[in-house]
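Backbone-to-sequence.
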């Protein structure tokens, strides 16, 4: 059997225990402090100082420059980001998440220390969503997408806008018109 190593890129070290349970190799991105249990993208040959512009790509660069030529043939390498571990339980499959969201139970399963969620609030994001749905409809001829776009104003109530907390101040168009976003507890 081939060897497999999965690297999980994170901006904060509080994900460490979950990553260890999954047997992922933890990668700390950017300038935040991480324990010695993390691989860092700001060591050896790196572009970590550009993380705020390129995100996880700074680790791909680091991996290419510092590790790739040392990987033996037959070894599988995988990459994932911590955002894929938003669930509080970290044992949910995508089908289960879809079912939970459809049951309007989303709040009981998402990790509020990682993300915020809300109804789509601003005109910019409503238009963005509608245009994405129209493009999807054009590409797939999906009847579900047609139903949603035809009844967009009514269907909008069923959408949740989810955003990683650390991305809120990086969005060119804010997801809310409120001056302060209430933290979920």
């Amino acid at each position: 059997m081939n060897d497999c190593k999965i690297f999980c890129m994170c901006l904060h070290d509080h994900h460490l225990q979950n990553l260890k349970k999954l047997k992922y190799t933890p990668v700390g991105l950017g300038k935040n402090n991480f324990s010695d249990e993390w691989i860092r993208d700001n060591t050896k040959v790196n572009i970590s100082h550009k993380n705020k512009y390129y995100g996880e790509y700074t680790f791909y660069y680091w991996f290419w420059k510092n590790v790739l030529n040392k990987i033996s043939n037959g070894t599988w390498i995988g990459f994932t980001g911590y955002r894929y571990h938003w669930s509080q339980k970290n044992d949910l499959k995508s089908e289960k998440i879809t079912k939970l969201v459809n049951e309007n139970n989303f709040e009981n399963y998402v990790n509020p220390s990682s993300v915020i969620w809300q109804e789509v609030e601003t005109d910019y994001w409503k238009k963005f969503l509608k245009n994405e749905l129209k493009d999807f409809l054009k590409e797939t001829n999906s009847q579900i997408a047609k139903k949603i776009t035809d009844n967009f104003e009514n269907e909008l109530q069923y959408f949740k806008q989810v955003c990683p907390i650390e991305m809120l101040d990086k969005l060119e168009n804010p997801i809310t018109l409120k001056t302060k976003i209430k933290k979920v507890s």
